Amino acid sequence: MDTKKNEVQAATVTEEYLRNEFDYVIIQQMLSKMLEKRLITLDEFNKILARNLETFSPELASIMA
Fold first, then answer.
1. What is residue 27's predicted lDDT score, i.e. its pLDDT?
2. With contact defined as beta carbons under 8 Å apart, do 64 and 21 qualify?
3. For 39, which of 2, 5, 34, 47 could close a Cys bridge (C-beta 3.0–4.6 Å)?
4. pLDDT confidence tier of residue 65, bands split at 50, 70 and 90
5. Could you write out the DSSP letters of every residue in the chain?
6. Residues 34 and 40 sit within 8 Å (Cβ to Cβ)
């Protein structure tokens, strides 16, 4: 019984991990467009980027982009 519970927990962690990676990529795309349209400054972009790296810790972002 504990084995099944561990399998379910592992699947949940994997889904959460992938969701974080996906969210990071989407946010980066949005930020890039905002910077391109001059809705945010380069300084603001860099600050948000740093914060997102702390929040999401993307490991697959370069593959997903």
1. 92
2. yes
3. 34
4. very low
5. -HHHHHHHHHHHHHHHHHHHHHHHHHHHHHHHHHHHTTSS-HHHHHHHHHHHHHHH--SSHHHH-
6. yes
> Which residue type sits at 46?
N
- Residue 51 near residue 18 (C-beta atoms within 8 A): no
- The answer to pTM > 0.70 is no
Radius of gyration of the chain (CA): 16
Residue 29 region, left (φ>0) first, then alpha (ψ -120 to 50), else beta? alpha
The reported pLDDT for the residue numbered 5 is 54
Tokens of 33: 């467009």
Place of tokens 């561990």: 6
